[in-house]
Write a structure and sequence with these properties.
Elements lengths: L13 E6 L5 H12 L3 E5 H9 L11 H14 L3 E6 L3 H13 L5 E7 L2 H9 L9 H7 L11 E5 L4 H12 L9 H5 L1 H12 L3
Parallel strand pairs: 1-3, 1-4, 2-3, 4-5
Helix pairs in contact: 1-7, 3-4
Pfam families: AAA_33
InterPro entries: P-loop_NTPase
Protein name: AAA domain-containing protein
Amino acid sequence: MPTSHPEGLVPPTLVIIRGNSGSGKTSAAREARRRYGRGTALLEQDYLRRTLLREHDTAHINPVAPTFITTTARTALDLNYHVILEGILHTERYADALHHLIDHHPGPTAVFYLDVSYDETIRRHLTRAEPIPVTPDEMRHWYTHRDLLQTPTETVIPETSSLDQTVATILRDSGLTTAAPRTPCPQRCQRCSREADNSHRHLP
């Protein structure tokens, strides 16, 4: 059953980060969550679709992944986690599910699209510590130019933005920079309290 949000308390934040393979969206999402800390759920399309479902990313099979992924995000939000959802999330297959998730979320929502050219996605892919086993021709087949979700909250981040700049934009524009965690561990865990106290002691 969904967790109710106390009266006067803004519900958790939903952040969606999209882009082509090799655009840097996974690195940006992981770093944004790392900087925020506990209280934010990181949902990666590739893990949920490939590992949990082992489903191919195609429209020809009436895929389960769009509903599964957005339902997972909805559950985490209902449990008072801020959510960072990242993936290619092609509009052909995911637009309806993502729009439904956004339209029914009562809290802040921010959508980011990493607008990176095909040539740059290839360059970034080749510099990965662990490149996924795909060829440039396969990446070209997957590549979709400016596959925007077309929501009022969508921000397009150009390829000239560094990882640090991209993460800073995501945290700032989503409001996560100042959003307090809502989940039990950061709020009531003794270990988290000690870590927070230590970090405050070392502030200049």
